[in-house]
Amino acid sequence: MKNLLDNISNPSDLRKLNQDQLPQLAKELRAFIIDIVSTKEGHLGASLGVVELTIALHYLFDTPNDLLVWDVGHQAYGHKILTGRKNVFHTNRQFGGIAGFPSRKESKFDAFGVGHSSTSISATLGMAIASNLKGETEKQHIAVIGDASIASGMAFEALNHAGVSKANLLIILNDNAIGIDPSVGALKEYLTKVKTDKRLAAQNNIIKALNFDYSGPIDGHDLPKILSELERLKTIKGPKFLHVITTKGKGLQQAEDDQVTYHAPGKFDKISGERIKKEESLYTKYQDVFGKTIVELAQQNENIVGITPAMLTGSSLKFMLQEFPKRTFDVGIAEQHAVTLAAGMATQGLIPFCNIYSTFLQRAYDQIIHDVALQNLPVIFCLDRAGLVGEDGATHHGVFDLAYLRYIPNLIIFAPRNEIELRNILYTAQLGLKNPIAIRYPRGKGKIIDWQKPFEKTKIGKGICLKEGKSIAILSVGTIADNVSEAIILSKKSDEIAHFDMRFIKPLDEKLLHGIFEKDQTIITIEDGTIKGGFGSSILEFAAKNNYKNNIKVLGIPDEFIEHGSVEILQQKIGLDVKSLTCYIEKQ
Questions:
Q1: Residues 259, 307: one domain?
Q2: pLDDT of 473-526, one tens digit each?
Q3: Among 49, 336, 541, 569, which one has the highest count of C-beta atoms within 10 angstroms of its own C-beta?
């Protein structure tokens, strides 16, 4: 049989097919995604689950004139392949290749850039209102959002507004009962009931109560049914809501059976679906150091609780869930709620470890200031995925946390150099700190095999000297210290260079700093956070406050959004790899 996908480079080609050819195209599109992702890696399950829906949307709607927004973008691989990126799809998430998420600068078919959840309804409503104001009454605006994302506060806010608007908006709920981990909460339970109770779907429906034209739920893999319903909805004006039931990982049995693992499974055999085992590492992921350590601490301290917004597996808080299910809270995609929930718990003597990816904590900034720091509540923020994270790219690099947290009064900020430092600060934080603390650590594995040593208390605000020197002092925070140490060893100026792990971005070890500034003429700060407002800025402020005239150089993430690629390649690009640092030191 002739391969239909070979002759499709954009939706106009797709629309030349007969409807009875579309099921065959769906099979080919699934096979194409599996073939590429099996060797190049990426987000698999979500895209496999929406193949029929993707085809139907581009077949019936006049994209890109009609505007289509994919929430988060984990499920947009089929969309990318059908919209001019089939021949470069093998570069997905690789340095210099296409992004893993929809991006406006990449394609006119990507109506809105995404990566964080729950933005699609707000953005699409904004587009629909703009079309109304411009008199473009026939233009269609479609948001595709998952059952985990729609439970976020931002999505509820957008639904509340859209229901009283006159906007020509279609919201499609892609309901597969799972985000990265299984969806949680009352809305998830309601959606589950709607799937089996036709009376509930037809009458006592919360979406209808918000003034939407609700239809569904329908089988998201039944192409004729999807096409028929979308064709009908095209003729209806105002806010509309289509509830579609899909299976995450559809078409690959292992991905259907293990939807958490096959969200992003790494390399796998495209025929059997079996994951290709990576060489066993002697080292432990930082997230697992956190996850296993908090279980140890919780065994000793009954007041410890763990909180995460839909990142049980990613944060390794799953270990605590297994051991202490009543003291572990997955609140769904609700970062603001997670922070204020932790604040409320802290007022009553609990010790909340609030684990949120660095880039997601940005979404709860006011809550950190207003609900935690202003009241000086001892919430322990554990910022996973800090610094460069690699292939997820600009939306997920945790490079702004040092800058956006440093200005907040009462907040302690700590960046461990290694697994033992992380373990000890977690121990110290639950001993009765009087302030909130943010502990930021990277994605990936550490470099210490035997990290599960007896706990030692960390002295708050105390830096340490890693190497003595004569005239040049390098100040680093966090795991970038590994690159710095290697660069110093390789440098011909090694004897001249002192290296200090400042550890605390706030409060700074001012006693140590005075000694450094009085001894060393050249001071170099190095961080894996943005140079604007970050650790280096705090050192410049210290020098100005104390009237020091030393030669100060600040290295870190430049004032730009960093694209996707491996951490090693990205470090080379911005000059934070060992070779670049060695060359920089040589020039001082």
A1: no
A2: 999 999 999 999 999 999 999 999 999 999 999 999 999 999 999 998 899 999
A3: 49
Name the catalytic one among 52, 335, 391, 421. 335
Q: How many domains does the chain divide into?
A: 3
Specify the DSSP element, H or E, that contains 264. none
Residue in 93, 318, 363, 423 annotated catalytic:
363
135: phi > 0 → left, psi -120 to 50 → alpha, else beta; which?
A: left
Residue range(s) defining the domain that contains residue 310: 286-442
- 456, 517 Cβ separation under 8 angstroms: no
SS3 512: helix
Q: Which residue is catalytic, options 30, 80, 240, 248? A: 248
What is the H or E stretch that residue 232 is in?
Answer: helix 223-234
Mean pLDDT of the chain: 93
Whether 236 and 166 have beta carbons less than 8 Å apart is answered as no
Go through 279-301 and write b for each residue having 16 or more CB atoms within 10 A of its CB, e for each that does not: eeeeebbbbbbbbbbbbbbbeee
Tell me what the mean pLDDT of segment 211-218 comes to. Answer: 90
* Domain shared by 438 and 475, yes or no: no
Q: Is 248 a catalytic residue?
A: yes
The residue to which tokens 């190049």 are assigned? 40
Q: Are residues 508 and 422 in the same domain?
A: no
Q: How far apart are CA 535 and CA 386, in angstroms?
A: 14
pLDDT of residue 252: 85
DSSP secondary structure code for residue 457 in this structure: P
Whether 363 is catalytic is: yes
Look at strands 351-357 and 380-386 and give their pairing: parallel
If you average pLDDT over residues 300-319, what whole number do you get?
Answer: 96
Query: Active-site residue 274, yes or no?
Result: no
- DSSP label at residue 276: P
In this structure, the answer to whether residues 222 and 307 fall within a common structural domain is no
User: Binning pLDDT at 50, 70 and 90, where does residue 186 land?
Assistant: confident
Enter the DSSP assignment of 26: H
- Specify whether the CB–CB gap between 500 and 463 falls below 8 A: yes
Q: What is the DSSP letter of 478?
A: G
Give dist(CA 542, CA 565) in Å, integer.
35
Nearest in space to 182 (alpha carbons), one of 50, 360, 363, 312: 312
Per residue, the 3-state secondary structure of 165-202, as one string, reads CCCCEEEEEEECCECCCECCCHHHHHHHHHHHCHHHHH
- DSSP output for 308-362: ESS-HHHHTTHHHHHH-GGGEEE--S-HHHHHHHHHHHHHTT-EEEEEEEHHHHG
Looking at the predicted structure, is the pLDDT value of residue 421 above 80?
Answer: yes
**Which residue, 263, 294, 326, sits at the end of a domain?**
263
How far is Cα 66 from Cα 37, in angstroms, rounded to an integer?
A: 29
